[in-house]
Design brief:
171 residues, alpha+beta, Alpha-Beta Plaits, SH3 type barrels
Length: 171
């Protein structure tokens, strides 16, 4: 059964990726599960600047039409679930790090785990403010990283250190 699910996902991935791309978004994840005679198609979409509820609804309508055209692949009824990534999504791509600019992140790199505030991110590494010190961390050294939820405003001196003190709300 798992192989059939993988085959369904592999068969639908190009079609879903093209439809999501044509709508101006990026496909983050596609998961297809069979539940009896019905399939559950879970699609996670995003953009560099994030995605709103109205945009998710629009992508859902678009994908529903596309999947209806490819009903032969699904082989019957399906449930479509379109969503955006949650805050607990691991930071795995440079654009994830750029969106997390000035946010607090927890990073595991090798044997070391630390918390730092995100500065500028290139295609290869990210600047982090860790314990008052700026560090350049290559993405290939990061095993796992997630945004930490903060319940109060970050200290202004940390934002100033990362060049974001006067750019409140910018991501």
């Amino acid at each position: 059964m798992a192989n059939q699910q993988g085959d369904l996902g592999a068969a639908l991935e190009p079609v879903v990726r093209d439809a999501v791309g044509a709508a101006g978004f990026e496909l983050e994840q596609l998961d297809v599960q069979r539940a009896g005679r019905r399939s559950l198609v879970k699609v996670v979409v995003d953009t560099e600047d994030g995605i709103g509820l109205d945009e998710v609804a629009g992508v859902s309508r678009t994908l529903s039409g596309v999947l209806d055209e490819h009903d032969h692949v699904l082989g019957g009824p399906y449930t479509l679930e379109v969503t955006s990534p949650g805050i607990d999504r691991p930071l795995t791509k440079p654009r994830h790090w750029r969106r997390a600019r000035l946010r607090l992140v927890k990073v595991r790199a090798g044997d070391e785990t630390f918390t730092g505030r995100v500065g500028d991110a290139s295609e290869n590494d990210v600047q982090l403010l860790v314990g008052g010190e700026l560090r350049q961390v290559p993405f290939d050294a990061v095993d796992h990283a997630v945004v930490e939820v903060e319940f109060k405003q970050p200290p202004p001196e940390e934002l100033d250190r990362l060049g974001g003190g006067s750019q409140e709300g910018e991501r």
